[in-house]
Amino acid sequence: MTKAPxxxxxxxxxxxxxxxxxGITKVLDGINLCVDTxxxxxxxxxxxxxxxxxxxxxxxxxxxxxxxxVGGEILxxxxxxxxxxxxxxxxxxxxxxxxVFQDPMTSLxxxxxxxxxxxxxxxxxRFARNTRGRKSFALLESAxxxxxxxxxxxxxxxxxxxxSGGMRQRVLIAMAIINKxxxxxxxxxxTALDVTVQAQxxxxxxxxxxxxxxxxxxxxxxxxxxxxxxxxxxxxxxxQVVEEAPSDELFRCPLHPYTRALIEALPRLTxxxxxxxxxxxxxxxxDPPTGCRYNPRCALSxxxxxxxxxxxxxxxxxxxxxxxxxxxLAAKYGTEARVxxxxx
Length: 344
Known about the structure:
Strand content: 15-25%
Oligomer: single chain
Number of helices: 12
């Protein structure tokens, strides 16, 4: 069965709250994000900024309750994911949208072989519902070979605990792309691996995404990974998108103070000064700051920041949410080489 052309993903003014014992926590506060056909998009920010929550909501995997979507919509191919039935979402996930989770050990069931788990994913696909026996086995072998895994037959008969971390991560990617999805989410891919294996896995994922023409949303706190994988980047802080721009433009000319702070916090391999940490921590979502949520940690903070800043357009698809971006913030900070080094 031939798929219809993918028309993209659009997250529009998404607002998510949680009803907890201590009260209401307002986590996502007006998220806007767009992924076009074949586009590779990165979402960066500290742990707890709402990156994975946005992804889980887009996939229809958000547990409601305790979560409550109080505003916005998520359009996949022009259809609102938030209005779909559970059955429609099950058909969509794994066939047209797929995900690679962060921890390969906890994402694979330890009591089933790799073959059993991959076959379950294949049967979920519309185009492969009648794939059985030898055809199924050949399809699984081919998917593992694409990830440069040696001896696919042995791997298919193995349990997750019998594979290394890098092999399990490659198996997860193979499972995610085996049904030829239009859109792939990669959540902190390679974080649980050592840097050498991480670089190999990321290069393989990048090659497969380009080869198959998939759209990609890569979620990470690692700016180097995002710089290598993505062509457009969204910077999130405390449930808000504070800046977005093409990848090269963002790292050449960051306009939001939080983006600049993230880049300044990158490890330095050369130079005499140390990396700068960001003082403070992400605010309590049960009582977030009024206006700009980065206000309590920002060195440029003043009373005018207590009103939510408007989205300002810097041209070249570069926008930011800050009233302070004078000319000196738009200067080139000399951080481009450091970001490139972190990605290699």
